[in-house]
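Pasting as-is:
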Amino acid sequence: MEQKSADSRYCQPPERRGLCRGEAAEYIGVGVSKFDAMVADGRMPAPKRIDGRRVWDRRQVDRAFDLLEGGGAVEDNPWDL
C-alpha cells in the first residue's frame, strides 16, 4: 500500500475573495470607522451586495490600496537592518 506524505493529505483552503467590513478594514490595517470613511470618500471601493450582506472584493480593495498616496522611496534607517 502506498503511503502518502503528510503534506499531500491536506490541502490549503482557497483564499477568500469576499471580505466582511471588519475583515476588509483589518486587511488594509485600519479600524472600521476609518475604513468606513475611506469608503465614503472613495479611497476604498463600495461593497457588493449578496442578498442582505455587504461584501468587499479583496481584489478591488488591493487595487484601491495600491492607489493610495505614499509608498515612494523610503529613507534608509539603520534600525531596519
